[in-house]
Amino acid sequence: MLSYILRRILILIPTLLGVSIIVFLMLQAMPGDPAELLLGERATDKALFEIREHLGLNEPLYVQYGLFLKRLMKGDLGETIWTRQKVWTEVKQRFPATIELAVVALFIACFFGVILGIISATRQYSLFDYISMLGALAGVSMPIFWLGLVFMLIFSVNLGWLPLSGRLSIDVDLQIITNFYVLDAVLTRNWVALKDVLWHIIMPAVTLSTIPMAIVARMTRSAMLDVLRQDYIKTAKAKGLSQFKVVFKHALRNALIPVVTTIGLQFGVTLGGAILTETIFAWPGVGKWMYDAVMQRDYMVIQGGTLLIATLFVVINLCVDVLYAIINPRISVN
Amino acid sequence: MAKKISLIFILIAFLFTSAAMAASPKMGGTLVFGRGGDSVGLDPAYETDGNSFLVCDNIYEALVGYADESTALEPGLAESWEISSDGKKYTFQLRKGVTFHDGTPFNANAVVFSIGRMMKTPNVKFVGKEWKIPPQERPPEYWVSMEMDDTIGSIEAVSEYKVVFNLKRVEAPFLANMGMDFADIISPTAFMKNPKEFLRNPVGTGPYKFFQWIRDDRIVLVKNAKYWDKKGGPYLDKIVFRAIPENSVRFLELKTGNIHICQFPNPADIDLARKDANLNLPTQPGMNIGYLSFNHTKEPWKSNLNLRKAIAHAINRKAIVDNIYQGMGQVAKNPIPPTMWGYNTSVPGYKYDLELAKEYMAKAGFPEGKGLGEITLWSMPVPRPYNPEGQKIGVAMAADLKKLGITARIVSYDWGTYLKRQREQPEDMDLFQLGWTGDNGDPDNFLAVLFDGLASSSVRTQWHSEAYHNYMLMGKQTVDQAKRTKIYEDALQLLYDECPVIPIAHSTVIWPSQKKVMNFKLHPTGSVRMKNVWLDK
Fold it and tell me: Does B249 contact A165 at a Cβ distance shorter than 8 Å?
């Protein structure tokens, strides 16, 4: 197992190299120029030349890529064009916000998705099944942007239960240590801040969870239906085991393999959806940051951010593979 | 009876006292300002975006300042100034008893350091303690694009509170330039502590001090209790600039009372704000112009004045302002805003007159558009302060031109490419939309920068007119403002007659605020000055 994990981590190096080359070439093919965007309408030939020179954009492509790789070898992702800060520093400030949101959203999606899927499968063609699968269809189809605004109108403007946007109220103090606010509040035993942070995360996380939740629910339902028709389930039932034991001990574990794969893939969907959720809920995460970087042609941010997200994907896939072996010991990681 | 009268007197006195109390500023409170995005950095020399400047406006001050709701110049950190008879030497007498937020005294050396660090090769002289100016991290964009290295020769501290700027050429807008954000004075001590990090740890002399920055979330400023100007504020304990990217969410935050001021709401929300008893609508005509111009590097646009005039009279600009600006703008007669000195009131503006336009078309040699062929109309892909929806405006213009028999094809690119290709004046560009937001209230900042194609190939409208170029040179080299006013009025008349550009509209800025926000005024330059703002509890 350990050598497998090590091998997969080593594969990360050529994967990331490939990603960096593709992203670099795509950026060069993309129209627009960061220097033009920095100066806007007031750009003069002289000012443009000086900025391009400073940013190294007047160098040939292979030199620019070589410099990027050279920095990367030293663990330096470079400096952003707009904010003149180390990309790594910016990542450290924003990634925790996105991860915190994505983890909570994924937790909601998995918890409710799996439960809905199981109940629907065990009560196939019941009213509950129809309603939950209709809900799942709606969940996949509803635009996050619209859903977020509807939630805001209901739970913030009309009912006043939840805060509209942001991560922390203006009048709540929190000592920021890790940038994971939930963790920071726990570490500093600031329960007022913890409550405030959790209150802020509910609405964006639920909004972000709708699509993955719907997909997980549908996948769990169909996987469970397959398993429930197997002979060993009939045997288990014939042996007189309770419905709960049959479903949770014998059926669910076998049905989980495709569900785990789906959940792993949904992590990517969640990160993609984070761009919209973060924009609507003024959530200072990496999604909005990357989107702005693309619009502003901040090459360093796009390159650094993409590499990090690619790394995250590889790690998630690795975790999914390892989970397979844990869930079903017949599967060997080798 | 006497008892009754005295009771009435007491009541009247009470009413007067409470009215006076309501009008007099109250100390304390936290004001939350909702805006569309975060600041990029807080070193005024290196920033180019409005969201950075609006925070800088409260942390820093410049030698000269602008009046409350206009761009009239008034003393800032300089108490007074003198201009030599040849217009090339500016002597500033500085204010005494001012300190930076970090305790560093404000003096001539701080001015020399702040401005001198932007010079490509600093030619500066300090008095007493010398500051070593570190090499620039990157070119200071405003300084470079305003060609300040070609204007300022040297900067000298002649005494602790006197600074002299020696100019290389006569530059009448120099004083107005010194009021701009890039010319703010910073604490040399704070800068030298860590030049690379100064943009995230700003220190100035302004009414509010930097306290905290959570990226993409908030910037918090706190009151500078030792502020030098004892007239008025600062009144607030804290100002929080919150980034809320989505316009409708920002407006909802205002409606629910979570923020006090909402920057750039959706035009559709303005009506809702008007009907809300808890909201005010601070309004300011923007110091900007959205215009349509021609590719003056090619025919027929270059020399066919009748064709240009035909297009100018065919475009229904009022309909554009009513429907696309949604009333948040005014039809432009001149390409400078009416609030600016030098505005020529006698210019009638191109009225919408299809028959007249057709006559000009016939005179131009293209009756009913015959012989002109399909033309391109470049339309902006992004909303700008002077143009809310370039593509919709393009469609409206194309429909107007169709009535003249002209087929116009809308062309657009992403914003960076649009700017880049437009500067190259390509063969496939006939008409283009663009605009400008003024920096300092000087007509030169509009008229020379935008239309004097003979001055530089960087001028977006490559219209080459000797007469106009001479006006612009005269305007720069004449120090007397009355004379300059006349020069710019004449230049505007020439622009109207020669029609190298069709001014479309000046947009109006409306930022709704809570009723309890007192004394908040929008400034034509777009700056946000909180010094005298207070919260009525």
Answer: yes
Question: For residue B215, what are its two tokens?
Answer: 């990226």
State the smallest CA–CA distance between residue A309 and chain B in angstroms. 19
Q: For each of the domains in chain A, give its residue range(s) and CATH number, in order of start.
A: 93-285 (1.10.3720.10)
Question: Residue type for B24, please?
Answer: S
Pick the residue of A30, A42, A280, A288 with the most B CBs within 10 A to test the interface with B by mutation.
A42
Calpha distance A266→A287 (Å, rounded): 16
CATH number, domain B288-508: 3.10.105.10
- With the CA atoms of A205, A210, A215 and A218 taken in that order, what torsion angle do they form, in degrees rounded to the nearest 10? 120
Neighbouring residues of A260: CB distance < 8 A, sequence distance ≥ 6 = A320, A323, A324, A327
Nearest CA in chain B to A42: B145
Among B47, B48, B214, the residue to mutate for chain A (most A Cβ within 10 A):
B214
A331 to chain B, any CB pair closer than 8 A? The answer is: no
Count of CA atoms in the C-beta half-sphere (13 A) of A272: 9
CA distances from A67 to A57, A61, A75, A77 (A): 11, 10, 13, 11
With 0-12 / 13-18 / 19 or more C-beta atoms within 10 angstroms meaning exposed / middle / buried, residue A201 is buried
Prediction pTM value: 0.87
- Smallest Cβ–Cβ distance between A43 and the set B40, B145, B435 belongs to B145
ipTM of predicted complex: 0.86
pLDDT digits (tens, 9 = 90+) for B145-161: 788 999 999 999 999 99
Task: Give the span between the Cα atoms of A223 and A251, in whole angstroms.
Answer: 9
Whether the CB of A287 is below 8 Å from some CB of chain B: the reply is: no
CA distance A245 to chain B (A): 48
CB atoms within 10 A of CB B416: 22
Q: Is the pLDDT of residue B8 over 60?
A: no
Q: Burial of A330 by CB count in 10 Å (0-12 exposed, 13-18 middle, 19+ buried)? A: exposed
- The pLDDT tens digits for A110-154 are 999 999 999 898 888 888 888 888 888 887 788 888 999 999 999
Within 10 Å of residue A247's Cβ, how many Cβ atoms?
21
Q: Would you say the C-alpha torsion A71, A74, A77, A80 has a positive or negative sign?
A: negative
List alpha helices for B194-304, DSSP H.
Answer: 247-255, 267-275
At the top level of CATH, the class of B206-282+511-535 is alpha beta
End-to-end CA distance of chain B: 38
Superfamily of domain covering B61-195: Dipeptide-binding Protein; Domain 1 (3.90.76.10)
Query: pLDDT class for B16, splitting at 50, 70, 90?
Result: very low
d(CA B330, CA B510): 13
Task: Give start-end residues of each CATH 3.40.190.10 domain in chain B.
Answer: 206-282+511-535
